[in-house]
Design goal:
0% strand, mainly alpha, Bromodomain-like, 4 helices, 149 residues
Length: 149
């Protein structure tokens, strides 16, 4: 069975149209997950986790409103926040896995940014989950091509 150009175009259009919804879903899941860890499991967030929350939580509203309004400029105002959160998340992971010395951390008060609170399957950690969420949301925003009106 040969795939026609029209079928390929329909699939790529559907995939493109779904990217903002995937970005919003991941941001919502990341927000709910971080609230679950801190409020239900009583795992206090470190200072870098707080900064990442500052980046992720507004994305739920910003991307959601952009989807509802079908705003072609969604990428221009969601991406800077997402990239800032991604940069903090990359720094946090480098610190967490010992690639950056702990002596240059902003975590002077409260819980350490390198404390091991969760480690599922020996490698899935809270900082890694945050990094994954920021990578997926950023990728969705970068790959999305708004429709011409």
């Amino acid at each position: 069975m040969k795939e026609t150009l029209e079928q390929r175009s329909t699939f790529s259009t559907a995939l493109n149209d779904g990217l903002p919804y995937l970005a919003w879903s991941i941001a919502l899941l990341a927000m709910a997950g971080s609230l679950f860890f801190s409020e239900v499991m009583d795992l206090p967030p470190c200072i870098l986790c707080w900064y990442q929350r500052i980046g992720m939580y507004p994305l739920v509203i910003i991307i959601g409103v952009g989807i509802i309004l079908r705003d072609r400029r969604l990428k221009s105002y969601a991406l800077p926040i997402c990239l800032a959160g991604l940069a903090i998340s990359i720094y946090h992971n480098l610190l967490y896995y010992g690639l950056i010395p702990e002596s240059i951390t902003p975590c002077a008060e409260g819980i350490s940014c390198t404390s091991r609170q969760i480690e599922w399957f020996g490698f899935i950690t809270i900082p890694l989950m945050a990094l994954s969420a920021f990578v997926i949301v950023t990728s969705c925003l970068l790959l999305h091509r708004p429709k011409d009106k």
